[in-house]
Each structure stands twice: as C-alpha cells, then as structure tokens.
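pinned: reference chain
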Amino acid sequence: MASFAEATAVQSLDSHTYQAQFPDEYCIGNVPHGGFVTSCFLSATALHFSTTLAALHQPHTITLHLTFLRRTIVGPARLTIRDVKLGRRTSTIHLSLTQPDNAEPSVVGYFTQSNLHTEQGISLPTKWALYPPPLPLSSSTRALKNDTDPNWTHHPVSTHLSDFRKAARKTDFYLPRQGQLEPAMADEWICLADGGKFTQTSLGFVADQFPQIVEIYPGTAPAGAQLEGQGSTSRREAGRTMWYPTVLLNSEVKKALPEEGVEWLFVRVRAKKIEKGRMDLEVVVLDEEGELVAVSQHVCLIMGAERNLRRGRGSRM
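pinned: its structure tokens
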C-alpha cells in the first residue's frame, strides 16, 4: 500500500503536462477525496516550479483556488499547466485536470507561487487568535500518541463509516474528550496513519480532513441536512448515507513547514451557515507551536450517498 507521499506523487509527461494516479483507497465512496486531489495539484505545481520554472526560485504555493466541475474517478489523471503570469516575487499558473473517457476538465484552478523563505516586507502583529480558544495539550503531542492527554482522545473512524469514507483511514484523528466546543465547529489534532510527515503538498489533504459538521451536530442532523425526499437523519445514519462534495476550495499558506515535514497539525473547521443542502467551511491549520500555517475556505454540497455511488464517469454532482 502506497504512502501518502507516494500516492500524491506525479510524473512529468512534458514541460507543462503531468500525470497523477487516483487510487481507490483515497476515495469517498467511488469519488477521489477532494483534499487528496488538491494535494496532487500541489505536487504537480511543486514539480513544475522545480523543473520547468526552476529559475524563478519560487518553491512554495501561497494561494490556490480550485473549482470542482465534475466528479473525478479512480485511475490516471492528467494535469495540464498554463503559465499565466511569471514575476520576480510571485507567479501564477492555471491547472486543468482531465481523465480518460472525458475530454472536459473535471477540476480547474489557479495557483500562485512565491518563496516563503525570502519574502520581505512590512510585518505587523494583529493579535489574532482562535475563539473560543482550543483546549490545550497537557504536555506534548506524545501524550496524544499514547492517548493519555486529559483533553484529547483518539477517535478511530467507525467501521460503518470507513467502508464508504476510505480516505478517512489515512489519518489518525484526536478530538476533544468532552465533545466539541460549539455545535457547528470541530477541533482536531491529526497525524498520518502511515507514520509519514505532513509537508507543503500535504496541506491540501489536511485542509479537507476533519469530522463532518453535519454528523457531530448535537442531537440529530439539522433539518437543512435532510436527505432528498426523507425526514430528519440521525448522525450515525448520516455518516452512512450522506456525501459532502466540494464545489470550491480556496487556500492561503502562511508558513513553510520544515523540509522534513511535521508529524502533527491542529485543525479547526467551522461552518457559518448550513442551509438547503449547502454549507460553507472555514478551515484553520496550526502547527505544534500554535503558529498559523494555512487558512482555507470551502463551499460544499450535502447530498445522499447514492449520488456518489453512481458509476457514471465524470457525471455532474
């Protein structure tokens, strides 16, 4: 079984074309996980700027915008790059993902590159902090790994969920022992289940790997999360029968992780409004020192799992 780094690696076909492979083990139902796909985009961008555009010395993605036009499928995927604007401080490229049997792109986006190690300019303290404050670690992430932290506990993916959400098996989740601090918000510490390290290209996956707000909402799933043609759905049943495809994903990277990567990251995800089968998500990623690593904004739909399990290639969501 491939590690996360191996699974998201891409191959250069020519100076502006790259190929990825989407394996079944990184799927939600029949559809490759949106965060995994985002990490493949990041891998292609990193390779492009280390080969074709190496002279620019811009190894870090600082912003990305992805629109998911159609569902992706398991198998090979081709990423075609167009250099849009090449500059001394930042450069922007356009990427388009296509797959066999469908000439139309499934995912398109813009990525902006820079060098986080050499950036210069004014810096000001903003006094920004997460509110409410996340629960502290008792000592270090070692207590998390041993599951001895009084505030956080390992939360294995339930068997009834893991068969549908295979990609969720790829991370270990540590959630507040006494439950989340607010109903439409989730805090977590995560690490890769294969023992690997999170790197810059992992941030796409990290920003899309969290407990589903609809399913941790107190009591039963809210009325806005009802399945098509059905009544209110319990959280357990929602986990089996609901799908949350990404329509849009924007991210900004604030900090370069060490080259060797990091084992742990903290993630907070929050919804401002969940209504009529659509929700926004705000994702904040911090490192062990509490420094801001990345922020992300998502637009997601709330659908029945049967929409996911249809076998049509590249079909509409």
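why pinned: The CA atoms of residues 252 and 306 lie 33 Å apart. The first strand starts at residue 11 and ends at 14.
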